[in-house]
Specification:
By secondary structure, this protein is of the alpha+beta class. The chain has two domains: about 1-105, no CATH class; about 110-180, no CATH class. Helices cover about 45% and strands about 15% of the residues. A hairpin with a 2-residue loop joins strand 6 (about 55-60) and strand 7. Helix 5 packs parallel to helix 7 and helix 6 packs antiparallel against helix 7. The longest helix is centred in the C-terminal third of the chain and has 20 residues, at about 145-165. It is elongated.
Length: about 200
């Protein structure tokens, strides 16, 4: 999750939770103590910033920065300039980190599709709902954009189609279901797994 902060007129995305990728593979963010604020640079290149306390312990007493208090009361950030310097000084490294992170995520697109399918099959009780979820997962895969994004989308689609083709019994797609789903697809190609399901015919008593 992220929120948008404005520092001296410059929009900066401040991440307020560790990215899922970092949590999955156990990568910890790099932490920086800048004195007036702490910075955490996450594996995807995003940054979380946290101000240091305006109250300081000195000996057996406490002190506080009056300038900080006044500026904050006006809705101003007393450390905005320092934060912008930090962001500028780490920009190239963070861009490189973000590129590596993106490539790692795209390389795992097929496995992510498998995990999403497994989750759908474990949590959706009815066959119709599971098939709808599988189609939606397939239909949301990228078909345009940069080469690695398109390749990742194709790999994920292939997993979905292979799984759909392996279904049997009530879980198997029928020609009628495929026709109905493809009528509302956003993809430029048709969802075309093996259709071994049998359409249910209503009968009268």
């Amino acid at each position: 999750m992220s929120r948008l902060a404005i520092l001296a007129g410059v929009a900066v995305v401040i991440v307020v939770s560790t990215p899922a990728f970092a949590q999955d593979v156990g990568i910890e963010p790099t932490e920086y103590d800048e004195g007036t604020f702490d910075a955490r640079v996450h594996p995807d290149g995003s940054v979380s910033l946290r101000d240091a306390s305006a109250v300081h312990v000195e000996g057996i007493g406490l002190s506080f920065d009056l300038t900080d208090v006044i500026m904050r009361s006006r809705g101003e950030d007393p450390y905005a300039s320092a934060k912008l310097r930090f962001l500028d000084s780490t920009r190239e490294d963070r861009v490189a980190m973000g590129s590596d992170y993106r490539h790692a995520q795209l390389a795992g697109a097929a496995q992510l599709m498998r995990e999403n399918i497994a989750y759908a099959w474990a949590t959706i009780p009815d066959a119709a709902g599971r098939k709808q979820a599988l189609f939606d997962l397939w239909d949301e895969c990228a078909q345009s954009g940069e080469v690695d994004l398109v390749q990742a989308g194709a790999a994920a689609r292939a997993v979905a189609v292979e799984f759909a083709s392996s279904l049997e019994g009530k879980d198997a797609f029928t020609q009628t279901e495929l026709h109905r789903l493809n009528a509302r697809r956003t993809s430029s190609i048709a969802f075309a797994p093996r259709a071994s399901g049998v359409d249910q015919v209503a009968t009268r008593d």
